[in-house]
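Researcher: I've got a protein sequence and the SMILES for adenosine-5'-triphosphate. Could you write out the 3D structure of the bound complex as structure tokens? I'd like something to compare against our soaking experiments later this week.
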Amino acid sequence: MNILSIETSCDETSVALLTDTALTHLTASQIDVHRITGGIVPEVAAREHVQVITPLVEEVITQSGLTQKDIDRIAVTSGPGLITSLMVGVETARTLGFTWNIPVFPINHIEGHIAANFLENDDIEFPAVALVVSGGHTELLYVPEPGTYELIGATRDDAAGECFDKCARILGLQYPGGPEISREAKAGNAQAYDFPRPMIDSKNYDFSFSGLKTAVLYFHRDNPNAPLVDVCASAEAAIAEVLVFKTKRAVKEYKAKSLLVGGGVAANQLLRTKLAELDASLYIPEPEYCTDNAAMIAAACKFHDEPNAELFDFKADPNWELTPR
Ligand SMILES: Nc1ncnc2c1ncn2[C@@H]1O[C@H](COP(=O)(O)OP(=O)(O)OP(=O)(O)O)[C@@H](O)[C@H]1O
Ligand SMILES: [Mg+2]
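Model: Sure. Here is the predicted complex with adenosine-5'-triphosphate in place.
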């Protein structure tokens, strides 16, 4: 099956063509534009998507060596995400599907982050637990079989990636903050400062990161000369410890054979190392497929066997929750 996929939920314009034997994948990042404002302005993001989406589709098809006639399905992220950004991808996909007479599949972005693990693995055992840690989401899901999800925990305020980004901003580091904090942390002492581990002792699988961000804010205000590397290492350790503790408990309680990690924060080296000490098979995509990419949307499309009844008649849904089906 040959799947053309489009991902524009946030600030990356990404297009992929996944066949049974090859993947062609191109992503245009807007990071340099959003660095100027220290975060994403939705209208600016949409305008950037509009400028590059059609050339990217053409370039991916050319590089794949296929033609439009070889494409069996079009898959597009239709939520959750920024409505202005999502609409560009959804309308492009629907237009292409309509004019080329190819079915279009609306794909959930969170399902995509989980499905990224299937790009390089075809022997994943179930049941599984999934940890999605990104700029907008921190979720633990029970996955009894491919394509079926039960949300068992989520953040009550900031997502883990958002916490990295906000801490970085407080500390005068660039956007996106996760990679910056992580780079500084390599030279620091993670035990230097005892930042809170919010909700680590709660019986549920929920998370909360806004208090940790506030603790970093007050610490930095009161100790402006504390070594940056130590502050970064201590903050990174606090975020990673909560994520790892709750995830390991979920893997145990749900008797999961596999842990599927996804989302931009999954690129974090400390998190990857700490999660490795586990009684289940650990799957984390290569960093390129942790952050937003269209390849993962094509991989998720494979879970949907039935032709989609909606065909072209669906809309971008910025709040689409991944629910059991
Ligand atoms: N090495 C890293 N360590 C920690 N965080 C990281 C690292 N690399 C990227 N991130 C974080 O990952 C986030 C981006 O991930 P991703 O692209 O999946 O999020 P998003 O698409 O903006 O949000 P969502 O998927 O929830 O819509 C940012 O918050 C960024 O700081
Ligand atoms: Mg994402």
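Model: The chain has a mean pLDDT of 94. The pocket of adenosine-5'-triphosphate (ligand 1) is lined by residues 9-10, 81, 109, 134-137, 161, 164-165, 176-179, 182, 263-265, 267-268, 291-292 (CB under 6 Å).
Researcher: Great, I'll pass this along to the crystallography team.
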